Each structure stands twice: as structure tokens, then as C-alpha cells.
Amino acid sequence: MVNGSKSENGPVRERTTERTGSLYGRKALVIGLTGGIASGKTTVANMLKARGATVISADDIVHQLLKPGTDVYKAVVREFGQTVLTEKGEINREKLASIVFRDPAKRTLLESIVHPRVLRRLSEEAERFRQSCQGVLVLEIPLLIETSFVKVVDKVLVVTAEQPTQIERLEKRYGITREEAILRIESQLPTSEKIKYADWVISTEGTLEDTESQVSRVWDIIQKSLANQK
């Protein structure tokens, strides 16, 4: 499935011709890629990368920020204690996740530590790309809508999967129970709400070939849009 969906309240991004790159005399487009947990975001991001897009993952930035010795690492250990550390002194992200997905207050606390720094880095990357590059930058951000970062990007691509598929993927990926998987899914904004912000929607319910076909159609639209920029 590939389609576009607009909010009934009108445009949700501060998009003008200038924001899509022509302010700098270049053809650049910044796309926010989002979707529910285990919806197939990274798979779609990799397909776009194979077609020539530059891809930056918010999760990769989180990994960097959580390395021992960083300010974020120190803040997390201070707030959550030594129990979230591995024997090597690294933050056990899965253990941390099991804590915050069961306690909304602790999840909010963790987000207050991590999100501002991640979003600042992504904003810098988007601005740098608009000023110095041509082509497509894809920012893979699970909480694109929830953090209001949607205002920074030019287009939004939402990746979807049915809840049973998400549950199965989470169980296999992390070895967690069905109940834990549901907790993680329900902690996020419903996919139906994310789609309201979408310019394109790609479903990963089918085969990889099905997903590839949808990505190809979106990529063609993107290339036509870039070609039409002055």
C-alpha cells in the first residue's frame, strides 16, 4: 500500500519551497521515516539507502549517546541506578527498556534525558544536508510525530504493520513475552494517528518483494519532486 494522507486540520509541517532545499540553490529533500515499533522501518530505510538516499537513524544516535562516559550515560545511571548496567559497565538497553515500558513516569524521565540531545543532532544533520548536499536525506525516527520533530522535515513516510505481525517480530527479536510486546506497542502513538501526518504510507505486511515495489513507487515520486525543484 502506498498512499498519502493529510490531516483534516491542514498542513502539519512548515513546508515551503524554501524548506525543500531551493533556499540554498540545491535540490535537497529531508524525509522523516517513522512507524510503530517492529513495523519494518529499518527495512524500508535500507531499501531507500540502496536507491541512493542518505539515511540517519535516531536509534544509532542513541547508541552513541549511551556510550560509557557520555553525559547521557552518566544521567541514565544516576537516575536508574547500577542495575541497568552490564558486567562491562555498559548500559543494558533491553533491561532499561523493560523498566520504562512498564512505568510511564520512568519512560518520561528517560525521554527527557535522551530526546533533546537526539533531536538536536538530527536537526543539525538536516540543516547541514540542506546547505551542502543534493538528493534525499532520510531521518529514521520512531517518535517523529510524538516529539513534534515532524515540523523539521519536508515529507513524512509512515511504515505500517498489523499488530499481530509486530508482536511476532518483537517476540523473535528480543525474546520477550506477548504481554511485554503489547506493552511496547501500546506505549506509542497508534499507527492510525501517525498516518494522519503521512505523505506516503508503506505496509510491510507482505513479502519483501511487495515492500520493494512500494518503496520503488515512492522513490519515483521523490525523484520527480526533486526534478521539478528550481
Tell me what the structure shows.
The protein has 230 residues and is an alpha/beta fold. The chain has a single domain, classed as Rossmann fold (3-Layer(aba) Sandwich), CATH 3.40.50.300. It is built from 9 helices and 6 strands. The protein has helices at 41-50, 58-65, 71-80, 93-100, 104-132, 163-174, 178-186, 191-195, 208-228; strands at 2-3, 28-35, 54-57, 135-140, 155-160, 200-203. A 6-stranded mixed beta sheet has the order 1-6-5-2-4-3, sandwiched between helices. The radius of gyration is 18 Å and the shape is globular.
How would the blueprint of this fold be written?
Elements: E1 2-3, E2 28-35, H1 41-50, E3 54-57, H2 58-65, H3 71-80, H4 93-100, H5 104-132, E4 135-140, E5 155-160, H6 163-174, H7 178-186, H8 191-195, E6 200-203, H9 208-228
Parallel strand pairs: 2-4, 2-5, 3-4, 5-6
Antiparallel strand pairs: 1-6
Helix pairs in contact: 2-5, 3-5, 6-7
At CATH level 3, the topology is Rossmann fold
How do the strands of the widest beta sheet line up side by side? 1-6-5-2-4-3
What would the principal axes of the Cα set say about the shape? globular
Span between termini: 30 Å
Helix/strand class: alpha/beta
Order of helices and strands: EEHEHHHHEEHHHEH
Rounded Rg:
18 Å
Number of beta strands: 6
The main sheet comes to:
6 strands, mixed
The total count of helices amounts to 9
Annotated CATH homologous superfamily: P-loop containing nucleotide triphosphate hydrolases
Name the beta content range.
Answer: 5-15%
| Overall pLDDT level | 89
CATH-defined architecture:
3-Layer(aba) Sandwich
Can you identify the CATH class? Alpha Beta
Question: Any idea how many domains?
Answer: 1
Which residue ranges are poorly predicted, with pLDDT under 50 across at least 5 consecutive positions?
A: 4-25
The percent of residues in helical segments reads: 40-55%
